[in-house]
UniProtKB/TrEMBL annotation:
Annotated keywords: Nucleotidyltransferase, RNA-binding, rRNA processing, Transferase, tRNA processing, tRNA-binding
Family (UniProt): Belongs to the RNase PH family.
EC number: 2.7.7.56
High-level lineage: Bacteria, Pseudomonadati, Pseudomonadota, Alphaproteobacteria, Hyphomicrobiales
Broad class of enzyme this protein falls into: transferase
Protein name: Ribonuclease PH
Length: 239
């Protein structure tokens, strides 16, 4: 039995609240159980310096965790003067995931920055960030379209992400902290709405995992992302 009493293929309750940041071109507060992330999309009317003159735009991300998002206070990375390797890895993952479903030439020479700030962490902060950031980016693009900055929404598909792992010898989905901290295997899957694989991160934490176990986790992730994409569509339908 999982600590949360969930079945192996059962995700935590997931919710999206759009438009929560008044000044951002797009925003979303995403909750995966007790994990909460505020995602805000900001339009910059110029591309990164290395992309100038190439006729296409860019989507990137910054990720951070509030000091008391965790059980004990974590020092702000800004006060330390540098980003941790974990933070750099996560924000690059978020950026790659969103660019995978974006028509970058359609943006023009502009950049959209997704700020993903973890308000409360209970496992799965990177997967929640990707899933919520998609909605913030979508609303940013709609903001641009309504002002004739772009002709049509540059998003080509949905994208969402979910964690899976081997816990007590069993493949499970959407690990909370109690599971993530003791899992034998930890994995993250980024998948598009049409089922395309964007990225798979899988690590043996305690014991190696088999190809069959990887396949079982992928099947769980595909089911979970299907549920997440349906929830994204439901959030959009609310207007």
């Amino acid at each position: 039995m999982r600590p949360s009493k969930r079945t192996p293929d059962e995700m935590r309750p997931v919710s999206f609240e759009r438009g929560v940041a008044r000044y951002a071109e797009g925003s979303c507060l995403v909750k995966f159980g007790n994990t909460q992330v505020l995602c805000a999309a900001s339009l910059e009317d110029k591309p990164p310096p290395w992309l100038r003159g190439q006729g296409r735009g860019w989507v990137t991300a910054e990720y951070s965790m509030l000091p008391r998002a965790t059980h004990t206070r974590t020092r702000r990375e800004s006060s330390a003067g540098k980003l941790s390797g974990r933070t750099q890895e996560i924000q690059r993952l978020i950026g790659r995931s969103l660019r995978a479903v974006t028509n970058l030439p359609a943006i023009g020479e502009r950049q959209i920055v997704l700020d993903c700030d973890v308000i409360q962490a209970d496992g799965g902060t990177r997967t929640a960030s990707i899933t919520g950031a998609w909605l913030a980016l979508r609303d940013c693009f709609e903001w641009m379209r309504s002002r004739s900055i772009v002709k049509e929404n540059p998003l080509r598909d949905h994208v969402a992400a979910v964690s899976c792992g081997i816990f007590n010898g069993t493949p499970v989905i959407d690990l909370d902290y109690a599971e993530d901290s003791t899992a034998q295997t930890d994995a993250n899957f980024v998948i598009t709405g049409s089922g395309g694989l964007v990225e798979i991160q899988a690590t043996a934490e305690v014991a190696v995992f088999s190809p069959d176990e990887l396949s079982a986790m992928l099947a769980l992730a595909q089911k979970g992302v299907g549920e997440l994409v349906a929830l994204q569509k439901a959030a959009l339908a609310q207007g």
